[in-house]
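Technical appendix A lists one of the benchmark inputs used to test multi-chain prediction within the project. The record comprises two sequence entries:
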Amino acid sequence: MRKRKKTIGLYVAGFIVAAVILLPIYWMFVSAISPKVELLARPPHWFPHSPTLMNLKKLITGGRGTSGEVPNFARAMLNSTMVALITTGIALLFSVPAGYALARKFPQFRKTYLNIIITARMFPEIALVLSMYLIVSRLRLINTWGGLVFVYTSFILPYSIWMMYGYFLTIPKELDEAAYIDGAGSWKALLTVDLPLALPGISTVSIFSFLMCWDEFLYALILTFDIKAKTITVVVSEFTTRHMIDYGLMMAGGLVATVPPLILVIVFQRYIISGLTAGAVKG
Amino acid sequence: MRKRKDISRWIMILPATILIGFALFYPVISTVIISFQDRSLFMPTMATFVGFQNYRDILSSSEFWNAMKVTVYFTVVSVGAEFVIGLFSAILLNQDFAMKGFLRALVILPWAIPTVANGVLWQWIFDANYGALNGILSQFGMIEDYINWLGEPFRALNMVIIADVWKNCWFFTIVLLGALQTIPKSYFEAAEVDGAGFWNRLFRVTLPLLRPAIAVSLVLRTSEAFKVFDIIYIMTKGGPANGTQVLSYYVYHTSFEALSLGQGAAISTIIAVVILLAALFYTRLLMREEVEINA
């Protein structure tokens, strides 16, 4: 009897959790495919009577919405994707050797090094955005992919070094020593022995790095001024600053910005969970 | 042979170190320098040294202390709510029942939604004239007239917190569930046999065993919440009447809207010092935990 009551309780709680998560996501989707008249209905149409792809089409092909020119969404997607990919590539290129060296070669000062990196990660972005702006403008990289890549690297790199260090620690160093006996140098040991074994760690770092870049807003807001470099988050945010907010278009924009990370997270769920839990166990 | 190895380890670590130095530590130092200067965004190359003047101005401004109060409230309430929801949902997802797998896949979804998209979504849900929250509450007869959720300072702050909690509480769920799965089921069964009820088991068995995971996840979320900017910018722009003006937004406003770089840098430095002190305290805590885990 008590057992049965517990089971019912579990299902009730489970349905509540599912509803809390799914209803807002459902509403974003429904609003994106509802015509304007239905969005302004009272009470709201929980199920659209005549769903339409108008808003999504406007985002892709451009044209005029009720609040002016529709921004070039395709270009913003391209900007976000390229900046995230290039940053991730650079972060891996630098952090894999650095993480390896810290895990294997610097027993005496690696704690200090990693502590300094953690401390730097605690620094608020807003505290740096001023001088970042000045540096990037001195490098003449305002409103370019390069400027964003430079700035994003500053917060992705400490994170990726820390993660790669943690991952290399889990690979037995006896494997390296065997390679050394066979006459391999440090680089050869890293590339032929450790790197293949570290692939899951590298995947985790890549996915998180991509997600963090995709999500980034503050720096992109300050460092870009037109569609040549504006990222998806900046373009979506602009819907909120116009006088007449076109909510249907805004939800369509939010939906489009959400789909890539959502797909990544669903496909690579295993890596995400291991990354989050590893981050929490090791800091 | 020995020598070559010594050189290559430096080649491995130096490029990353130089890049971090240039992209991270140089900006930090230059922010601190600017905080002692009078500089305007209009003429960023013109600067005069003013000593501690910027700091004196800020520490005596009521707007700064208001921003501090708002930030602390936001941090404590949102992280507190996220932790409680995360803990109970993690315990739920650690039970054996048919929805377990489905829910475990589900909790990761809000976490994946970009902060900006989450902000516009909740702004629409809370809309004063056509929002879903007003719609649902009035359909159930819980409100007579539509409410302007984001129109009043303190209410707006709490609504933004709800939006933030909805996206971020699942981080605790995932992390604490990961930690719960490492605890042998027999611990709970033994406590149950001893007649311990749910709350007793929670406080005597679950929480003490989760302590390291709780400490680390609280630290991460607290430092993120203290730096909150994106969702405030999207949903309320710090308003109404500065009711949601957190410290980060205050820096943004001072530097890029009031165009006073020196003062913006001074506030930045103050925030950084607060977070650094916390970080120092936290790293101590983390290192201690790590020793315990290894032992």
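Confidence is low (pLDDT under 50) at residues 290-295 of chain B. Residues 16 and 142 of chain B are 58 Å apart (CA to CA). Comparable benchmark entries are summarised in Table A2.
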